[in-house]
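thought: user wants a sequence for this fold. calling inverse folding tool.
action: design(structure=
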C-alpha cells in the first residue's frame, strides 16, 4: 500500500514515519511534485484536515491522508485552536506563537489545555477521520529543546516534563498525533488484509 501524507512539515513527516508500519509506503508532498501550500480555510481542525486530503486527491489523484492539529486552551475560549500555526501572525513562527500565548495567559489562573489532531484519510474513494486528544496544561515558561510548535510549553496530564523534554518515542505514546495515527494504522491494518 502506498499513501501520501499531505504535509510540508518535515517534523510531522518524521514523527509519522516512525509510527507507520513498514508495509505502507509513505510518500511526501515533495515525492508527488506538490510544492504549493495546501488550502486551510476551514473554521475547524477537522474541516482543515478534510480540505487538505480532498485537495491532494482531486489535484494529484493519490490516496492520502492529511492532518490538522490545534492547541485548545480552556481559559482562552479554546484559542488558538484552528489558528495555532499562525497565532502570532502569518510568519508561522513557533517562538512568536508561544510568546503570544504566554502573554495571553499571564492573568489567567487556569492553564488547562489540550492538543487535538484530526486525520482525514482519502482511501479508495472513501473519506474517514480519526481524532487524537492529549490533555494537559501550559507551563509558565519554555522547557526543553526537542519537538516543535508549542511542545516547550505543553505538559501532558500526569507528566512532569514538557513534550519538548520527551523523546520522540515517549511523545508518540501519549501525544495527540500518536493517538490519531494509531487509529489510522488500526483502520489501515483491517482494510489492507
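)
observation: tool returned 193 residues.
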Amino acid at each position: 500500500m502506498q499513501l501520501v501524507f499531505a504535509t510540508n512539515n518535515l517534523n510531522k513527516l518524521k514523527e509519522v514515519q516512525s509510527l507507520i508500519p513498514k508495509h505502507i509506503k509513505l510518500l511526501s508532498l515533495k515525492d508527488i511534485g506538490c510544492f504549493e501550500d495546501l488550502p486551510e480555510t476551514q473554521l475547524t481542525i477537522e474541516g482543515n484536515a478534510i480540505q487538505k486530503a480532498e485537495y491532494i486527491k482531486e489535484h494529484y489523484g493519490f490516496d492520502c491522508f492529511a492532518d490538522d492539529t490545534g492547541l485548545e486552551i480552556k481559559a482562552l475560549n479554546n484559542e488558538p485552536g484552528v489558528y495555532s500555526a499562525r497565532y502570532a501572525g502569518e510568519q508561522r513562527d513557533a517562538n512568536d506563537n508561544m510568546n503570544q500565548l504566554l502573554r495571553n495567559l499571564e492573568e489567567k489562573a487556569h492553564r488547562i489545555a489540550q492538543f487535538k489532531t484530526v486525520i482525514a484519510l482519502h482511501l479508495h474513494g472513501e473519506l474517514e477521520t480519526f481524532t487524537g486528544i492529549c490533555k494537559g496544561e501550559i507551563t509558565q515558561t519554555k522547557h526543553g529543546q526537542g519537538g516543535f510548535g508549542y511542545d516547550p510549553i505543553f505538559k501532558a496530564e500526569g507528566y512532569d516534563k514538557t513534550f519538548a523534554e520527551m523523546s520522540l518515542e515517549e511523545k508518540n505514546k501519549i501525544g495527540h498525533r500518536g493517538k490519531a495515527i494509531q487509529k489510522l494504522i488500526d483502520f489501515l491494518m483491517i482494510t489492507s488484509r
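thought: summarizing for user.
answer: Here is the designed sequence. The helical segments are 10-17, 45-60, 94-105, 168-174, 176-191.
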